[in-house]
Specification:
The structure holds two protein chains of two kinds. Chain A is an alpha/beta fold. Chain A contains 21 helices and 16 strands. Helices cover 48% and strands 17% of the residues of chain A. A six-stranded mixed beta sheet of chain B has the order 10-9-8-13-11-12, with helices on both faces. In chain B, helix 9 (235-247) links the parallel strand 11 (225-230) and strand 12. The chains are: A alpha/beta, B alpha/beta.
């Protein structure tokens, strides 16, 4: 049976009242996927508030005349528009009002024509219309309505159905049109809002308002790879942890049980299976380099795969970070210790190569990091004198312009990174970073591996020792904190403004707190900071700037 | 006379607005459900106290096209020419909303020019001030527009944020995102370029931060006007003012309070140096 409905003003109002109610339920979802034009997570809120203003104005109209109602709604949108999406909605309603101007009531064909007028007006309202946004969704929905109306102008329900279907498909395509959405793995938030609004209108027309009560609008997904945020993170039960590392180890007299026990100390989700000639290894670790070095000491590696699992758990902000980091100059740093890695990342290092004292990364590992950075120019911070040669070799292996700023310690690397000027040229930055690197003093606290005597300082095996700038032994003591305090007295802290203490894996937090309190007590005029470095080998790495 | 309109993102104070006859359309600011008009319903002091102490992070939104239309309509009663200068459209919907408001007055005899300043806060403020001064001299619409366009090209804006936390919360980090969530206690230097916020670098101490801000002043010749923006009163503001006095003895910097609309992103302790060259 053909359904022939003619809408007057009151019905137009109730259509959009249902649309707004449906939209309200989708507000948190829409906010969550809001990355364009500004990822501030308020598109859903803005659209809903704008619709509230529309409906408030609509409720004041006493007239059953559809033109008067649409005019009032347009006025409401105009005054109440919030944010970019609100501005577009206000144009939408303005066009809608223009489309039904002079009419007492409308049929399906009029409705389709009004939607098209709304679409045209929305485009005209923006200084720079962008495709892949709610504009596209409005246009494609209106076009589908027009096509449906051409075959059956009386049937407002099937016309609206066609519009809703087209809107949904259009939303799913938005990531194809707008790279920002593609990178973030989401559909356009404003487009999603339009789809939900029209779907609410359709529910009203079909008389299915009851059904809306217990349901929620669907969040359209793009079906593109990378839409992990919406579809939820992978359902594997393994705990996400650093790098997922897989390889096949071939050798003689391999002992899978012993390998497993050893690897269990290096990470989580460890799976080791095989026999004495071939062992398959799977491990989640923060230090894939360490795992691989251990494995290569036993045999040869095959089918090696290392994946950063954080990549699968990327949050919005991190994605923005990736998107934003396409800078002219990228920085690669060699660092170990989860805290220190975080420090380098947070200061703008584009890639981290795991490594440091006693675990020097290969030329190839550094090269891979250099290649992974999306910048044509790369500065490498080796942060260890034994790694400088490998880093230097990378220069001849890549088409990128690579400069090694030869930082020998972590504090030198941090100081160099802080001196980076985003507006500067490569040469200017290298100069500034080298100067900053030389202005910092480093004290590292570790323990002596044997009895010795250096420059008159007697050292017993197991004692805590302090090393200045990676070369001179400046203090030795039975207690770690004592060694640090003594070293700072010897080195002299007068010229330093900031003392930063990176505490490592091998030291208890209460011990660190003690020494920080003592430092504040001894040097009240200095800015003293304590940061978790998580580094192996060194109890403390101290920077004097 | 040409009438100058801007939005509260320019941080033009009510006194300046009165003195230079500038109409300021407020942006909106929402703490959860409650909405305020920037600078009208909520003072800067009240705002920063709430920003720091409350769990709800406030959001800002542009004035509606209707807000602009009513301001334009009111002005059109006595004026035939309006220049409306707004926050960089890459940062806010304000410019598009103003265009929407202008459309409402299509067909009236009042001519309205809406301009994207490609700037914000104190930088936008300096552009608006230059426009208002030209208008007060009796310049024509075309002449004032030329002044605005020139000023837009010549305003340099650098900022020193005590923390990046608020910028990150509001999603306005843009290209500065690579500095996100610095673990060390660093202050971030930002620069406005092509209407967007870019990172300039980080520093460990206030003094070094002020050095870098002053470098910008030193790198520029023929400085005509200087704006000094601050969110909350700090030592930094005093020290920067002193340094500028010795650096640019012939210029009296305009000290402007960074209002809620931008303070949402800058947070407390933020400093902005805006310089307008010739």
């Amino acid at each position: 049976m053909k359904q022939s409905i003619v809408c007057d003003g009151e019905q137009l109002r109730d259509m959009f009242a249902a649309g707004s109610a449906w939209l309200e339920k989708s507000v948190p979802d829409i906010n969550a996927i809001n990355v364009f034009p500004v990822p501030d997570g308020d598109t859903g809120t803005n659209m809903f508030l704008t619709m509230c203003a529309v409906m408030e104005e609509a409720d004041r109209v006493a007239d059953r005349n559809v033109a008067a109602m649409a005019r009032a709604m347009a006025q409401g949108a105009l005054m109440g528009a919030r944010g970019n999406s609100g501005v577009i909605l206000s144009q939408f309603f303005r066009g809608l009002a223009r489309g039904v101007d002079g009419k007492e009531s409308i049929n399906g064909g009029d409705w389709a024509a009004a939607l098209n007028e709304a679409s045209r007006t929305a485009y005209k309202g923006l200084s720079q219309p962008v495709e892949g946004t709610m504009l596209t969704v409005i246009r494609e929905a209106a076009k589908a309505a027009e096509e449906a109306a051409a075959t059956n102008p009386e049937d407002i329900i099937s016309i609206t159905e066609a519009a809703v279907k087209a809107a949904k498909e259009s939303v799913a395509r938005t990531p194809l049109l707008l790279p920002v959405l593609r990178e973030a793995g989401v559909v356009d938030a404003g487009g999603q809002g339009i789809y939900v609004l029209l779907e609410g209108v359709l529910y009203y027309l079909k008389g299915e308002l009851e059904g809306m009560k217990y349901r929620r609008p669907e969040l359209v997904t793009s079906g593109l790879a990378g839409s992990a945020i919406i579809s939820g993170i992978s359902d594997e039960t393994e705990e996400a942890y650093g790098y997922c590392t897989n390889f096949l180890l071939e050798g003689n007299k391999l002992n899978p049980d012993r390998i497993r026990r050893r690897l269990e100390r290096k990470g989580k989700s460890v799976v080791v299976v095989g026999d004495e000639n071939t062992v398959r290894v799977h491990i989640h670790t923060y230090d894939p380099g360490g795992v691989i070095r251990y494995a290569t000491s036993l045999g040869t590696l095959h089918q090696l795969q290392i994946q950063n699992m954080d990549d699968q758990h990327v949050s919005f902000l991190e994605m923005q970070q990736e998107r934003a980091s396409k800078l002219e100059i990228g920085i690669v740093a060699v660092v170990s210790g989860e805290g220190l890695i975080e420090v380098f990342r947070s200061l703008g290092a584009a890639a981290i190569v795991p490594g440091g004292q006693t675990m020097n990364p290969s030329v190839e590992e550094i090269l891979r990091a250099v290649e992974s950075v999306p910048s044509p120019r790369v500065i490498v911070l080796p942060n260890n004198k034994n790694i400088v040669p490998a880093a230097t070799q990378v220069q001849s292996l890549t088409s990128k312009e690579v400069v090694v700023v030869p930082s020998k310690t972590i504090p030198q690397g941090v100081a160099a990174l802080i001196a980076f000027n985003y507006e500067g040229t490569l040469e200017e930055n290298v100069r500034a970073m080298e100067a900053a690197m030389c202005a910092v003093k480093t004290v590292e606290i570790t323990h002596a591996v044997r009895n010795t005597q250096i420059k008159g300082v007697k050292v017993k095996e197991g004692q805590a020792i302090a090393i200045l700038d990676d070369s001179d032994l400046v203090a030795a003591a039975d207690d770690v904190n004592e060694a640090l305090l003594e070293a700072l007295e010897r080195v002299g802290v007068e010229s330093a403004e900031v003392i930063t203490l990176y505490h490592g894996n091998g030291i208890e937090i209460s011990k660190t707190e003690q020494v920080v309190a003592e430092l504040r007590n001894r040097y009240p005029e200095k800015q003293i900071e304590s940061v978790f470095g998580g580094q192996p080998h060194y109890y403390y790495i101290v920077s004097l700037e | 006379m040409v009438k100058i309109v801007t939005d509260s993102g320019s941080d033009i104070t009510p006194e300046l607005a009165r003195e230079l006859d500038i109409a300021v359309v407020p942006l909106y600011l929402a703490f959860g459900e409650k909405t305020y008009r920037d600078g009208v319903d909520i003072s800067a002091d009240e705002f920063y106290a709430r920003l720091v102490n409350e769990h709800v992070h406030p959001t800002t939104s542009a004035p509606s096209p209707g807000d602009f239309a009513s301001v334009y309509r009111e002005l059109a009663a006595d004026n035939d020419e309006i220049i409306s200068i707004h926050i960089s459209k890459k940062l806010s919907a304000t410019y598009d909303a103003a265009l929407g408001g202008k459309e409402q007055l299509a067909g009236t005899k009042c001519r309205i020019e809406v301009v994207d300043s490609q700037s914000v806060t104190t930088g936008l403020g300096l552009i608006v001030i230059a426009a208002a001064q030209a208008a007060a001299r009796g310049s024509s619409l075309k002449q004032v527009l030329e002044v605005v366009q020139k000023a837009t090209r010549q305003v340099r804006l650098v900022g020193l944020l005590d923390t990046l936390r608020y910028l990150a919360k509001g999603g306005r980090l843009g290209k500065a995102a690579s500095l996100l969530g610095a673990m060390l206690n660093v202050k971030a230097l930002l620069i406005l370029k092509d209407g967007e916020i870019h990172p300039l670098g980080v520093v460990r101490t206030l003094e070094k931060g002020l050095d870098r801000l002053c470098e910008s002043a030193r790198a520029m010749t023929d400085i005509q006007d200087v704006g000094l923006g601050y969110s909350t009163p700090t030592d930094g503001l005093q020290k920067l003012a002193e340094r500028l006095r010795s650096l640019l003895p012939h210029i009296h910097p305009r000290v402007l309070r960074i209002g809620p609309a931008l303070g949402v992103h800058g947070g407390p302790g933020a400093l902005i140096l805006a310089l307008r060259g010739e």
